[in-house]
Amino acid sequence: MMKIKNYTALLRRFYHNERGAYTVMMAIMSFALLGIVALTVDGSGMLLDKARFSQGIEQAGLALMAENNYSRTNKEHEDVLRQTVTKEELEGFSDTFSAQKYKRNQELVRGLVRHYYYPSTYRENNREINDKYYYQCDNLKGPNGEQLKSIACEISGEFERPSWLYLGKNNGLSFAKTTTINANKIYVQKNLDEIIPIDLMLVTDLSGSMNDDVNGRRYGTAKIDILRDVVASIAKELLEQNNTEEGKIISKYNRIGFTSFAFGAQQQSNSAKCYLPYEIKPSITVRNNYYYNYYTTIRYSELLSYIGKSQQRYSYATLAQFFDLFVDYDKTIESIDSFNGKDSDYLMNFNKNSWCLGNATRINSTYIWAKKNESANLISRFNQVPATGATLSSSGLLIGANLLMNTNPDEEAQPSKLGANTQRIILVLSDGADQLSDANSSLNITSNLINQGMCEKIKSKLDSLQDKTYLEQPTRIGFVAFGYGPSGTQKAAWEKCVGKYYYVANNKEELLESFRKIIGLVEEVGHSIYQPPSYYSN
Question: CA-CA distances (angstroms) from residue 361 to 232, 350, 357, 382, 457?
């Protein structure tokens, strides 16, 4: 008991005698900890501000390009003319207007970038922040050294960032009082030259349901009428409009064709027939409907005899299954390699009928090519095609893709003359899933072909037409679901085929907008590029 009391007294004396030492040690450790906190907080803050500053620079570059004070038609606009320029700010400029343009551009850039890195978190008055911005804009140089109308800008900047936890001058436990944060050069470009011609193939569903309105009723505006109006608008924009508006890129070598499909599609030279453009097995063996353990062999000619008939031996659902089985998917995809723009001898063909585009055998439901100032002819031809039949979208896609192999024979439209390749676009529109009669007779031919690589094969074949000397314009396939909500395997297949060019439209405005987005008929406000541009002045 005595020993315990002695130890307790000893510890008590030690505590009283040494407590000052602990205070000093804690003070020293606290200072070091504060320094570590300062380095951590300011270091992460600098990285965050650099990222924000770089994002702001990129957006400012796009804004600079969109306003285009360098070469726009209307240079003396309000935002430039309202700039007040001092005598000092005039130094280095040939005239007041040039100084006003420069000041406006600086105002545009600075205002945007400051919204990204939040300078008000350092000082209440943003104008006290020391930030600088540098930019250059100039015309691009063409493949033969000529001056193009297209322009590019490069933009960079820096700002002085005050430390949040500054511990004093020459202190190794914090960053300096201010640190220069800079952004690497950002390059943006705006295409203004009429150098990229478009070959557009409209692959449009003209099945019987296109006579209904978007709600599936017969008393509203028919989908076929809306589609005709939209095709007319696109034709006028691509074939008639001159490149006079800011940001418009309209080539005088644009061409438009169309391939209408129902249960099959017409080839170019025979207006009386519909074709199923697939490699077909001569016969298939199926289980007998009545005697389950017996099998029946069906030849393709027997199946062909049912097309267009309202009554037949098999139900629509069974016929749909048979058609799916008759297609040789591997050989059909391989046949894309032989596409040459000419009609093919497809095994399954039949006279146009109630299943495919009606009995108007003298009306061309497939047509190429309408060129500049020929929109009226295209519109007239398209408006004549009736909407009649079932739906099989891949029939139109395959025939339309083959026709796209017909290159423009005009010598002036060749890449060697324009310094650019042709952009080939297939725009597929359908107002319902592939089927013969109703949802119970769904056809899986298109889904199976897409999932086995049809779209990639089509793009690869059409891309073989690109001249490798010039910037390649990869083939684009777009899909518009018009007046219905796609679902299931067919929706997934089309999304796989077209990627970001998948749209759903339920009225005229949405349909026109989706067409314009797929084609690229949107105002060019500028886009980022990742290599230094080749300026004409260099």
Answer: 24, 11, 9, 14, 32
Cα separation, 38 vs 46, in Å, equals: 12
Predicted pLDDT of residue 3: 52
CA dihedral (457, 462, 468, 473) positive or negative? negative
| Closest of 375, 432, 367, 426 to residue 206, by C-alpha | 432
- CA gap 163, 123 in Å, rounded: 12
CA distance 367 to 235: 14
User: Which residues does 385 contact at the CB level (< 8 Å), separation at least 6?
Assistant: 206, 260, 357, 360, 363, 364, 365
CA distance 406 to 269: 14
The CA-atom distances, in angstroms, between 351 and each of 64, 268, 357, 362 are 58, 14, 10, 11
pLDDT tens digit sequence for 96-133? 998 999 999 988 888 888 888 765 555 555 556 788 88
Whether 377 has a pLDDT exceeding 60, the answer reads yes
| Cα–Cα nearest to 404, from 457, 445, 456, 461 | 461
CA torsion through residues 239, 245, 251, 256, sign:
negative
DSSP category for residue 145: S
Q: What angle do CA 253, 256, 260 make, to 5 degrees?
A: 170
Q: What is the pTM of this model?
A: 0.70
The residue written with tokens 């005039």 in the block is 90
Q: Burial, 236: exposed, middle or buried (Cβ in 10 Å; 0-12, 13-18, 19+)? A: middle
Mean model confidence pLDDT for the chain:
85
